[in-house]
């Protein structure tokens, strides 16, 4: 009887500990993804603010011309490329949490600066500041979550990052439409931009109640602190001991944090970096931001009115959120490689369908509906099976001693690809029309071949086991090539 009561008490204590650990992990994810919410809002809000900013200064706008409109829009993307690169390096030196705290302040400065900008020059500068924070958050948020999450839940928890990005974009689209409809003020764009400070403040305040990454602490020699954090976010002592042993081994093997120059000296890390850059290319050349930025332009070519085209943009946001929900479910059940490859296949079909619609249904009654359908289909596959996988893989692929700098460099390249698509898409669409989408389809076939050839499966392994697996995988490729060369020489 006493034994049964003791067993029951142990079970109750175990359930209580598990519940406390799960609640803390949930709180950490909610707080940290405020950075992703700010990221999404800041990238989406400009679409609603630009029409008001085009008004003359005397009427409450900034008098934007097509040139300055492009500069205001692209300043954020270019700032993000710089921010992700710099913040990746800072995260390795000062830690993930503390770097995010600094970024929350940069978000607030950028939001207030853009909302109060008295001139185009100040607006461009403040958009670049805001972009720095957006880029830093895009690199640090998934990295931080991946280092805190248990291996079995890492995929779903990291994918909350993508969910908050698309939610932020949808909130921006919806608030833009609501504020524009209910306000008669031509300066309402300043309110739209100021709202971006809200998630940034929540991020900064919330981070005071979030522990530092145990893996980063261990990499700095602060192993006692790392163990205390793990005891808070893991449900059993066995899990803590197992994870600490793995971290100790990784720290002993890695010795110390290294920069990108030192990382480039190791063949397998160079190959991982090239994989990360290639995945960023594949994610952006799905055309995701061509659709998110230019859906109204595409639909106007089918004869759809401007107001209806803008409403369709809200449809883009709704599909993106719903698809990301489905993507989080899929990530927990299917291998990473299979999901990403399936998504790229769907994107190819959607681009072929959209190109064929614009080419063969020109002027027909169903052209607008068919085009919108294929745009939404493309976004469904992208936001369900490509974008969440990209951000998840960026948080998993790189070794602990250079995780910040390599993630930052890879994500920085992704932002450059983002800017490339945003710049070239309207030019190519004007030049070759429907052929643009056949070009996208061809590029995505090449991306499919790249992923099939070079991406190993990462699901179900702790970060430390995954690092060892990737080192063996990419080092083995080198050995195979050497063996092939030797055999050829013989």
If you had to describe this structure to a student in words, what would you say it looks like?
- This protein has 490 residues and is an all-alpha fold.
- 82% of the residues lie in helices and 0% in strands.
- The chain has 20 helices and no strands.
- It has helices spanning 2-32, 34-53, 66-94, 96-116, 120-148, 154-182, 188-194, 197-206, 214-219, 223-233, 237-254, 260-263, 267-284, 288-300, 306-331, 336-360, 367-396, 403-432, 435-454, 463-489.
- The model is unreliable at 484-490 (pLDDT under 50).
Properties at a glance:
490 residues, mainly alpha, 20 helices, 0% strand, globular, disordered C terminus
Number of strands: 0
Question: What is the terminal-to-terminal distance?
Answer: 76 Å
The average pLDDT value, as a whole number, equals 84
* Strand and helix order: HHHHHHHHHHHHHHHHHHHH
Low-confidence segments, ≥5 residues, pLDDT <50? 484-490
Principal-axis shape equals globular
In DSSP terms, counting alpha (H) and pi (I) runs of 4 or more, how many helices? Answer: 20
| Range of strand content | under 5%
Radius of gyration: 24 Å
Could you say which structural class the secondary elements and strand pairing correspond to?
Answer: mainly alpha
Largest sheet: none
Helix content: over 70%
